[in-house]
Amino acid sequence: xxxxxxxxxxxxxxxxxxxxxxxxxxxxxxxxxxxxxxxxxxxxxxxxxxxxxxxxxxxxxxxxxxxxxxxxxxxxxxxxxxxxxxxxxxxxxxxxxxxxxxxxxxxxxxxxxxxxxxxxxxxxxxxxxxxxxxxxxxxxxxxxxxxxxx
Length: 150
Fold this sequence. Notes:
By secondary structure, the chain is of the alpha+beta class. The chain is built from six helices and six strands, in the order ααβααββββαβα. The strands form two sheets. Strands 1-3-2 form a three-stranded antiparallel sheet. Strands 5-4-6 form a three-stranded mixed sheet, with no helix packed on it. The longest helix is centred in the middle third of the chain and has 13 residues, at 63-75. It is globular, with a radius of gyration of 17 Å. The N and C termini lie far apart (46 Å).
């Protein structure tokens, strides 16, 4: 088994910081790249590549440009993909910190939480099973309080 080296995510709050990170890594900031970055900043939460392309006004006949730019942003730690439910991967800006997710399997509601809010649960799993879970790529799945009450 090999250890995976993870680069810490870049901290940014503005689009120009993302462009500077891209240029600093030797990438060109092309028009399609700008459109993808702008769509991610405009999104209120995780969005699919198809939604990004649609919001960015990119041609539906060429999804490869959207995916290529999302992969580049993900490799730099600017964005990441998450799997929330049974649909396509969704993409979200990393921003100044990681987020983890809770997903209601009945109504589909997604709750984004600070990782520290799940540290107690994480510690229990680690103590009992010797495994430290992360819930940023795949969410904790269950029922929200409204679905439990209904």
